[in-house]
Amino acid sequence: MVEQSENMAPRKKKRPFPSSSSNMAEPPQTEKKASSSSSSSSMTPDWTQLPEELLHIITEKLDNCFNVIHARSVCTSWRSTFPFPHSLLRPSYSLPAFGDFPYVSKGSCTLEKVPLFLFRVQTPAASPSEYFLGGVGRDESVDYMELQYPIQFSVKIPGYEPNVLNIRNSQVFPLGHQYRIMGWDPESWSTKYGGVAFLPLNKEGGEFVLLLNYSMDLLVLRSSEMRWMQLKETSRAQCCHIVAFRGRFYATFVSGDLFIYDPYTLKRTPFAPSPPLRSSKYLVQAGDDELLLVEKFNPFPDAEILDFNRFTCRVSRLDNEADKWVEITDLGDRVLFIRDSGNVCCSAKNLPDGCGVSGNSIVFTNTGYMTYAYKYGVHTGREDDELNIWRFSRENRVTIVNTSPMVAFQVQPETRYRTLDN
């Protein structure tokens, strides 16, 4: 089965595909039904004739959703035995259009729950590690009923040439889901769309509330009414990021404000950590049970020259019982990716040694062409730099290749030089 990245508008500029792209997805091959006479002389096993109990054993061993896709493509009997992976499903909702707000629009739009993945492309040992981070979905342009087996699984990435990534040549790491209104590019300078947060009001999922970051406003929609309304209580500044977590909405703004919104009353409550900082705030949901806040700030506000390389971070975890932010210095094996189209958390424990991405680090993919991961307690060699804080670690250089529709980046060790005296 062929899949593609989320339905976002591709950039016009074509970028070369990573070095492993030469292993393109093979064309579909015809399933051969050998006769009894020919099968006796062939050494190739007929996988379609496996006993049902063996198929169940194979099912238990397939812990990766893409391996399930491969198994489903063996033959029609395997396709009926292996259910389609739940993690690749994209539930959708039809909503009223909001592009003409505050005027009522006669059109409609679609909200989808998009599965997110991190793909690490296999590269030679001397080459930098290459990654793709983003959502995937079924390629609706292909008629799967007409395809013959086996079907090769690949990911289409608009903006690249060639634009097909073979999953067999990649390591795949699931990152959960993200709700998106399709047809809008949140990373385009011309768009007014800035993201959406979905909050179910009951376990059955029938009733829900949406909070939409659009233009300079926050819009809200209740499933019981199905119309967009402007949120009255908000910040004077533009909203940066919204997230739904454990029955409440959280929103950050350019001014540094951070508010909680009750989904029923839509009243706001200030919820910034203490002591307050003049910082850019980024919310990161780590699974279903943890919400993290990354604050990036200038530790030398009175400096004559602004050095972005000396910016530092404070990381806090939401204490649900005490209802407050608690500063933390250790993320464990996790990596936080801060990006324009939604921040994600990834476990690094399964990544091989030397790949360039390690745990307990923060990677900003929205700050320019080249960057470094932030780590806690980095020695800079400067006496005026505080040690007990998150700052640049120059162990590995992160090169941002592309940001839309998927984030593409390379990681490689930083080359250091020193001057030798004669």
TrEMBL record:
<protein>
    <submittedName>
        <fullName>F-box/kelch-repeat protein At1g64840-like</fullName>
    </submittedName>
</protein>
<dbReference type="InterPro" id="IPR051304">
    <property type="entry name" value="SCF_F-box_domain"/>
</dbReference>
<feature type="domain" description="F-box">
    <location>
        <begin position="47"/>
        <end position="81"/>
    </location>
</feature>
<dbReference type="Pfam" id="PF03478">
    <property type="entry name" value="Beta-prop_KIB1-4"/>
</dbReference>
<feature type="region of interest" description="Disordered">
    <location>
        <begin position="1"/>
        <end position="46"/>
    </location>
</feature>
<dbReference type="Pfam" id="PF00646">
    <property type="entry name" value="F-box"/>
</dbReference>
<dbReference type="InterPro" id="IPR005174">
    <property type="entry name" value="KIB1-4_b-propeller"/>
</dbReference>
<dbReference type="InterPro" id="IPR015915">
    <property type="entry name" value="Kelch-typ_b-propeller"/>
</dbReference>
<dbReference type="InterPro" id="IPR036047">
    <property type="entry name" value="F-box-like_dom_sf"/>
</dbReference>
<feature type="domain" description="KIB1-4 beta-propeller">
    <location>
        <begin position="203"/>
        <end position="372"/>
    </location>
</feature>
<dbReference type="InterPro" id="IPR001810">
    <property type="entry name" value="F-box_dom"/>
</dbReference>
